[in-house]
Amino acid sequence: MTEEIPGVNMEDLRLKGFRVHELQASQELPLRRARRDFYKMGLVNGDMTVQYGEELLELKGTVLFFVNPNVPHSVVSRVNRTSGYACLFTEAFMNSRELHDSPLFRVGDNPVIPLDSAHEAFMESIFRKMLAAYHEDYPYKSDLIRNCISLVLHEALRIQPPKHAAFQNGSGRVTHLFLDLLERQFPIERPNGPLRLRNPQQFADRLSLHVNYLNRAVKSVTGKPTSAHIAARIAAEAKALLQYTDWSVADVAYALGFEYPAYFNNYFKRLTGTTPNTFRKV
């Protein structure tokens, strides 16, 4: 479900596939949480608290902030107004593999990168170049902005390398493969394509591992059993589908791989303490 953003021509964004704009000091950011159909990266200067998925993130000073379109987010509080730049773009505008493989947009990783003065100046020069190109009639501005986005993504990874760039042992590698496979199943886009991998044995089969080895590896690295990771991710997706789609509870249940809505109701209540219908009304 896509929400409108004040001050942004959503139809123009969807047609062009990108938009670049400056955040004015007096500009109020949208507070409503929703899934959107575009990625976002920003160079933000301010002091605020942002809810990103289930996490509360503190943005202080000048930071780069990367937003996965499938993670609901909103500003919770501000100490002062924010300023900076934002670039919004659709998956179709960029190379989808570059986005899917980038740790910057990986669900569960911290999307905030603090900048020192040198990095701030460099990033500001890139965003200014994108902003100037956006308002020009240059016939190849799409290519220019696409290249600038890639440059920001690569420079951001140089500033803050991904945590999972290297693995200390086989358990670390197996855990990374499991978590990556788990995350690649989401978000659920339609109710007629049920979730395929829902238990440790199915994940072990897909990874060509013995289920006991998978369980030991994941537990040793994360401190939580494989089944707990699966249940938490299914519950998080269930909450998102109940909040941000108009699907029936039965549709949500089937999309998440439950044969009967009653099974889903019991599963959801066991994990969250409330029923799907009650959660939707809150």
Automatic annotation (TrEMBL):
Domain of life: Bacteria
Pfam families, per the entry: HTH_18 (PF12833)
InterPro entries: Homeodomain-like_sf (IPR009057), HTH-like (IPR037923), HTH_AraC (IPR018060), Tscrpt_reg_AraC-type_HTH (IPR020449)
Occurrences of domain HTH araC/xylS-type (ranges): 172-282
Keyword Iron in annotation: no
Keywords linked to the UniProt accession: DNA-binding, Transcription, Transcription regulation
Listed Gene3D superfamilies: Homeodomain-like
Protein name stated in the entry: AraC family transcriptional regulator
Native source species: Mucilaginibacter rigui
